[in-house]
Amino acid sequence: MKIKLKLNPLAAGAIALLCGAAGPTSVLAQDSVAATTPPAVVITGSRIPRAGTEGPSAVTVITGDDITRQGYRNVFDALTNQAQNSGFVQGADYGNTFTPSANAISLRGLGPNHTLVLLNGRRMADFPIAYEGTVNFTNLANIPSSVVDRIEILSGGASAVYGSDAIAGVVNIILKKQADGFDINLKAGGSSRGGAEDQRLQLTGGKSFGKLNTLFSLELLEREPLWSADRDFMASKTGVAPTSILGRKNVSTGKYVDLGDTCSSLSDLFGGSTVKYTAKAGSYCASPKVGPTYWTTQTKNSSQNLFGSANYELSPETTLYAEALFGQNRSTQNTRGPSWTSRSLTDSYFWNQNTNAYEAWNRYISPEEIGGVDRYNRYWDDQASSLSFGARGVIPGTTWNYEAGYTASLYRSQDHRPRALANIDSFFLGPQLGVDKNGVAIYAPDPARLTRRLTPQEFNSITDNSVSDDKSWTNTLSLTANGDAFQLPAGPVKVAAVAELGKQGFSNTPDARINQGYFNAATGADVTAGTRKRYAVGVETNIPVIKTVNATLAGRYDKYSFAGRDDGKFTYNGGVEWRPVQQLLVRGNYATSFRAPDMNYIFKARGTGYYSSTTDYYRCAKAGQPVADCEFANYSPGADYVQTGSKDLRSEKGRSSGLGIVWSPSADFDVTLDYWNIKISDLVTNLSADNLLRDEAACRIKGDLTSPTCADAIARITRYPDNALNKPGEIKQILVNPINAATTSVDGIDISGKYVFRTKDYGNFITKANYSKTLNKHSRQFAGDPLNDDLEDLTNYDWRDKLNASVTWNVGKWSNTLFFQRYGKVPDAAGDAFLTPTTLVNASVVYRLNDRTTLSVALNNLFNQVKADSSAGWPYYPVGNFSPVGRQGWIELNYHFGG
């Protein structure tokens, strides 16, 4: 695949630095990072350097070696599998979502927008498209794992240190800063069930030139898609009526017009699965393989990522630094093939002058007619770039350290979506002959045009790609300083201060041809754009109260300016560490936090679209049909929606607290137990369409039309009248807009432990375990609503608990790891019951052939399990909670030059 590079100025600057960092003789070794560790390091959640990672708040650390040994494919894979990441998210492989080219996490199940993601302690530009069309978040898909030194995860509020967004926690991805040598890394693998192959090439290097240290990394990734048709268990829809691929219906009678032998002449379509299907309303041509044929459960991906950094020791007190990251990514998927319904933009039927009847025609076009299933792929071209530079060192005449820097980050995404052209009605129906007295379009169509298969050339004449351009950016100027303020009997009082000035913006620009009537699409695709400024000052202190007690206090004020108004928030936190003996730490913390209103929520113009699928619970209930067997369940495409923004939104407010104990009697053994609690009020929300439809059904069935939730749900869902000629009682559209309404609270426990067993003749055994369990989670949509128990809510697909455990055996040149992941219960797709917990096992072997070469083999999902869930029909597995891929294996070779 050839991808054309169109570089923005920021990207050009980033690549210039990358090339300069590499130099003609630059080389790097992954295993040769400088062995000397400074006596104090900055740990995520504080700006004050400290001697160890344990502090008043729990911080989980994932090293670069962990990513390889535990079978993680990349940075996102490592993060999404952490025990704290309990939230269900619609990711890159979830299907027809708003953000299939992005990867997000959800700490504590509080959503991607409540976790702050940093790169080397700095903010990155949001993904340009809002998650679920509502909230902004950070994409984790473009960070090369080869230069990751470690990833630190802080759970709980940290706005007093980092500002907005840090309500559920902070993820800080820390990259290597110095190395010497050059590594080439090759990795390739696939699935034992077929499909989903991927390959990776990494070139990393670095070299010191006197006072100048450089580092660079190039990463090339290729991943093949996984089609639903590639898995036997979801290659065909069973137990439900097959999808109509050709039909004529008399709208007045509700009966299909008999098609004679048409279906047999099309029997080879959709892999030879097309048949004549007879229902209560008559017969039509249908196939059970339409959806699976056109659906990718894993996107195709091609990405190229570069990173470079340079540090120059200007003097013993001052170091200049620069870092640049550039990545481009093409994601390709298919979640629905080309289909046509007559007059789909109006009433979906017409007056047939030849039969003197109102008719509705439909056609689903097969891969055999268009030149292959790939012809209707949708793809995204993304570019992410960031550039940071500044100076750090010691303030002259003092012992205080400082860092002054500027960071610019830009993310661009171009969406190429196949659409039917405005001429598609005339292609199948011929020219419109006016309208009748009821305003319904009149045609005199030739039935042969509907029943005759298309050629690729004909298909090209009625389809084209719309192209939307979306971008987001952020610029930040920051100044930090830390040092000893004064001396107390138990030690020095350490202080850190920060000042920040920033501006960010975004724009979503749909294809202008949509509003010009070029496509067979509703007009009103408006540009959404906005900017906001940010100012912040903060201070943090570390106070040795007595020899065994240490306290931390922090406060920060953030001010946001947007949409002609200001929104300012002061947040604070405090923590206490008590060490009654050297091996034991008792800790506690309390913090306030906030999230400024999402820019998408504020500036969203009137947006229209449709959901990938919809379940009409009310019609299912009226028909007396359980969801699993309901003809109105999971129909695709789903209902239309209309979404608008609001400039009057307030910031969300959060409070978090924690209490924990750490026992570490030796370097080979430690165990931690932490209790955590997070509350959010004034939560900005757009109700999910599924929740609205569930609420509407429950309210209508019990006759409650006036309670706050019922009145709101019924007002948001508009339906065609029950006596409408076409689509009687069906959903017309769902209205959504953001409001400060909801509250939520969640608490739980984290347990972790490590034990190293050393032997003289058989090597060392390292065991690690991390367990997180949500004890309680409650939410309320409106003040007058009853409190909802989210853990018992069968529409809440978050994990209730997760366990990660590993055993590593290091002996001689071998390092062998078994990694166990136990996923707790989650609801089934129908929302009727809980699925049982599931344990997956990964295995890896790393062998050092010599001082320069290592060879590793990894098997994920060793026992080839795919979790089954047929409760709501196709695709017969828990989408989003489990993967349909099965066992995957990789071989990885790393060779080191020089150093």
Report on this model:
The chain is mainly β. The chain has one domain: TonB-dependent receptor, beta-barrel domain (Maltoporin, Chain A). The protein is 11% helix and 47% strand. The protein contains 15 helices and 44 strands. The chain has a 22-stranded antiparallel beta barrel. Strands 10, 11, 12, 13, 17, 18, 19 and 22 form an eight-stranded mixed sheet that branches. A five-stranded mixed sheet has the order 1-4-5-2-3. Strand 36 (764-780) and strand 37 (788-789) form a beta hairpin. The longest helix is centred in the first third of the chain and has 14 residues, at 9-22. It is globular, with a radius of gyration of 29 Å. Mean pLDDT is 90; it is low at 1-7 and 9-38. It comes from Duganella radicis.
